[in-house]
Write a structure and sequence with these properties.
By secondary structure, the chain is an alpha+beta fold. It folds into 2 domains: 132 residues, Mago nashi protein; 90 residues, no CATH class. Helices cover 36% and strands 25% of the residues. Strands 4-3-2-1-6-7-5 form a 7-stranded mixed sheet. The chain has a 4-stranded antiparallel sheet with strand order 9-10-8-11. Helix 2 packs antiparallel against helix 3 and helix 5 crosses helix 6. The longest helix has 26 residues.
Amino acid sequence: MKKITLILLILLLTVGAGCSEKEAGISEDATITHKTYGGFINQEIEVQELTVNRTTVIFTTSDRNGNFLKTYEKPLNESSFDDLIDLFEKNGFLEMEKSYIRQEGQPIVADAGVLEISLIQKDLTKKVTVDPYYSEYMPEGLQEIDAALVDLREYALSTYPGDTEGETEEETEGETEGETERETEGEAQNGEAGEEPLVELKYREPENESTPWDQWYAEGNIQFIKAPTQAELIIAYYGSLYHIEVIDVKRLEACDLYYTCGGYFYVAKVREKDAGKMKELGWTDMGEF
């Protein structure tokens, strides 16, 4: 009899321990977010965030200052949310590293931005960052989680026949675009609102040799997910090597800048504090001939 009682006690303790582990896991009331920012993307939608809970999927876009452009919302059934929670648990999200970055020997990627996946609940918050946001930098389990959340983002963006939400979003977008245009006009006159003024500089394109950024790209020092434009390459080159933020790059014919026609210039904006370094690297003021 004592032996049977002891066995029952052990079983009860085992079951109790299992329940405690489950309670310490992911709650059915958790909220999950998938946030990306940075990279080569329209600055008005630079920040993109998906929020998922047991009943709803919400996707928002905003600029770097937190000014929202659009919001998309779709219902989510509970079984789909349970499947998502199971995916997080199966892949050990709570045990993952806090951040994943490029390791030695992996390609350098410049145009991918940053990814943050967060799980938020009453007694626990876990955030995993991938910088830059490139699948080869993630463990396989995190790749699966990321793919599932990207699918939910596409679902949030989808519209169906008779869906009135799409009409509402179009009206909101039209109103927001007008406001954005007014802000852009102000920035052109005074630099970005509330930030250091911008300085416009130019760089003559060499006729018989490669630019520094083309040489850098040809040497395999950096990799892009898709072939970069010259503007993207210039931004990556000065950002990676000199930590200078280059903005609004354009390629113009010499005669557009009142030079003798023939040849091209690159024109770009940088922060006032970076203008001196850019001049050391061969850029000149717009009015300088």
